[in-house]
## 1
Amino acid sequence: MGEFSAGKSTLANLLLGCSASPVMATPTQLPPIWYRAGQGCRYINADNKEVPLDFARINELGPDDAKVVFSHLDARILNVAEVIDFPGSSDPNMNFDSWEMLFPQIDMVFWCTPANQAWRQSEAALWQEMPEKLRTRSALLVTRMDQVTSETERMRLLRRIECEAAPEFGSVVPVSLVGNADGSDGGYEGLSGVLELIQRWCTEIEAEARMEERAPLDFTPVPRPPARTPSRPLRPLEPGTIVPRRVFPASGGRS
Ligand SMILES: Nc1nc2c(ncn2[C@@H]2O[C@H](COP(=O)(O)OP(=O)(O)O)[C@@H](O)[C@H]2O)c(=O)[nH]1
Ligand SMILES: [Mg+2]
């Protein structure tokens, strides 16, 4: 998630290991694209019906045509986590209702903010409105760090983000999503940090799912077998039938 041109599709492609998501130079109004393992592509139209789609023609979908596009791919990451590439949150034509429809399905969020205009008021305002469940496992990725050339500028930017945005996220990761052949981390600053977060959160989510699978505690009383009733009714005892051992009749006494 994030605003236009923040690097969302570039990140999706890096995670998927292919150029699946259209990386755009101009604002477009693509619907959320949900990548899943397998083959084929379809979208959910305004009437909630599934319609087959030739992914190459995704640009032809108008903003109100599709609530979400499901694109099935053969990518390693999709065996552990599905990836949703959201449209820019700053798009005035954005259909927020179709976003909200997806929220219950989302386990972790990477919010991309570009270093040159990082964490604008509009982003902060929208993030505040996100449900708590989405914010629990979330990271702010400060993209385009390769374009911040001076160390002073870098320190100043990250200090500001630390104050203004870090408390709202689980993590803040400065990243560069365009490769730099001689750089460490495969040239993509911060990418290994993103992969570690995904791995850690997947492990947590699996552990939570296992706990939920366990039989719930049941506090209803366990039924007891019925009390044994004598086969014939007991006769009432005659007085004096039972003499306590240590009590002797007053007349006789012990010799
Ligand atoms: N230099 C640099 N360019 C980036 C980075 N991330 C994205 N871009 C470029 O920003 C443009 C928009 O990226 P895109 O992924 O389409 O942004 P989206 O609108 O958030 O999906 C593309 O030209 C990308 O190559 C980055 O970390 N560094
Ligand atoms: Mg995009």
## 2
Amino acid sequence: MRRRDLLKRIGTGFAALLLIGCTPTPALEVTDAWLRAPLPGKTVAAGYFTLHNHANRAFTLVGLSSPVAARVELHTHYLQGDMMRMRKLDRLEVASRHRIVLAPGGHHLMLFDVDVGLLTDTAQVTLEFADGTVLSAQLYVRNLRP
Ligand SMILES: [Cu+2]
């Protein structure tokens, strides 16, 4: 009986420690975010990231913006005959406990009228979701010329 009480206490203490030790996981998380800087003389850039949904419900991405670009769109590639084409997606749902990967050849961001003078090591992109959630992501900038 005593032994059981002790074990119970140890169990409770351990659970409390676990709770303290855990930082809360955000519902939405962006990882592997990067931007391919515009080619010299161009102002269009492509951006990529992985969007994780850790929540028990779906989120729908409905808007994108960036202080370094006039317009940010979400695009996808598709095959028409043997031509690779792309089109804009107005919204994209990420299911509960799923993730969406934006990568070259697939879904991607297109940034239009990029102000190259504003580009540093990272570029901020803001994601807006249908429920009003706003998430800010820092995209590591690649191929930025000095
Ligand atoms: Cu595109």
